[in-house]
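pasting for ref
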Amino acid sequence: MRKTFAFTGAKKIVFGNGSLLELPGHIRDLGGKNPLIVMDQNLAKTGLQEKITGLLASEGFKFVVFNKVEPEPRIELADDGAALAQKKKCDIVIGVGGGSAMDVAKAIAVIAANKGKAVDFLGLNKVPKPGLPKIMIPTTAGTGSEVTFTAVFVRKNLQKKEGMNSPHLYPELALLDPELTLSLPPAPTAQTGLDALCHAIESYTSINANPMSEMFSLEAIALIAENLRTCVHDGRNIAARERMLLGSLYAGIGLANAGVTAVHSLSYPLGGKYGVGHGLANTIMLPPVMAFNLPGALEKFADIAEAMGECIDGLPDREAAYLAVDAVESLIEDCGIEASIQDFGVKQEDFAALADVAMTVARPLENNPRKMTKEDMIAIYAQAF
């Protein structure tokens, strides 16, 4: 065990059915009077925007809505939202939706209070000072962005994804209402849920994991493995949705403290160049990366297998560990996802260029339990083809 470790996170977490109704009080607690509500384009059409704005209007709040967020968001959206927040003198930012909306919201909050553009803050600890107070409200059980210090964007001109990483991006409040996930269709339920599983597995096997992060990550794996199938095929099951959202939350906490591994390094170029959604890209890359990483963390992969319901009693370490890969592949299949990178226009001659970009996504590679070379990456892309 490590002699010392640090553990950080969102300043406050509120979880429970119907907790969205408490939003006005939380805004007041944070000193907000004129919130900027950040949502994605599709979610804004579902009636949730009217529900939130009606709730705030009934409590006498002024508010501004920025509902231009798109999947795999362009970095320019953060600057557009920050400019609107400054123009309208917004004093708090509320991110509602999946990871894209929450990442944009977190970035808007820090850009609005710091001089500069979003590109100035990409990387680690490039944000000079705290931003506007932030409330994050997830509507998917997926990214865990409501409790992380990261915001990820696509840079179209470079055909790559890059992240803004700073403690100043941690939300003041994560408000999780499982009822908001009930209407999520099966396909995005599956993709975001498997994204959460990826975060949990990567953070558990990261070389920077610590006893507290491991506790959250392993419990997340168990919750997701037990409940994701039900959420995909019986989406109105509120008990399963509650446990799935809790699993996603725990995975986000594990991610924030231990980091992710090579799955993210390999999936980022797929999103940046080919537009593969983040959750789906991670889902495709997870099994082959797990198989590659097995020799570097046999005991941990055996733990994962057991957490996912596999019987490992009496098995040699390697056999027990490989059951984790089997369990993940079975869960992906049961959730109805049958995809390869070939489906998105990737060609075999592209593998080397993808690997070149993946090698630049350095922090996850540093966390990986087994050293990975460019040649290893090319072989892994071939398995995902």
